[in-house]
Specification:
Elements: H1 2-28, E1 35-45, H2 48-53, E2 67-76, E3 83-89, E4 92-99, E5 104-111, E6 117-123, E7 126-133
Antiparallel strand pairs: 1-2, 2-5, 3-4, 3-6, 6-7
Length: 137
């Protein structure tokens, strides 16, 4: 029995020491974001039908038959507070909102065809995800 107790104490110390070191290091680093972001692959779509049905969309889709877009998913951690986000393409905000604990946002945004573009998902000044695309539709 004493051997088991000693083993348990040593195991507890072995776990506590790295945990304390990690906690000290974590204090210096920024806290992890309360949300996870996935940026998908660029895809080509034919938006001609949508533009014909709703002509005011024509300004959003200069070449509706060859429209590039990218899907994004924003997932909040279970205990996450409501977190505001913005989706930007080349610095221009294309979408925004907020997501709370266990929430999921699935959306997409158009990209300029044939042009190198950077998509960023931000929360305040913090960049949660960033990816560069060069679609050729």
């Amino acid at each position: 029995m004493p051997g088991r107790t000693l083993t348990f104490v040593l195991a507890a110390v072995a776990v506590a020491v790295p945990a304390a070191a990690t906690a000290a290091t974590a204090g210096a680093a920024p806290a992890p974001a309360p949300v996870q972001v996935q940026l998908g692959e660029a895809r080509c779509q034919d938006m001609s039908g949508a533009v014909e049905a709703v002509p005011m969309l024509a300004t959003a889709f200069p070449d509706p038959a060859h429209t590039a877009s990218v899907e994004y998913r924003i997932t909040a951690l279970p205990e996450a507070p409501r977190t505001a986000y913005a989706v930007k393409v080349n610095g221009e905000t294309r979408g925004s909102g907020s997501v709370g604990g266990k929430g999921l946002v699935i959306g997409s945004t158009a990209l300029p065809n044939g042009t190198r573009s950077t998509v960023e998902v931000t929360s305040g000044d913090r960049v949660l995800a960033s990816r560069t695309y060069q679609p050729a539709c």
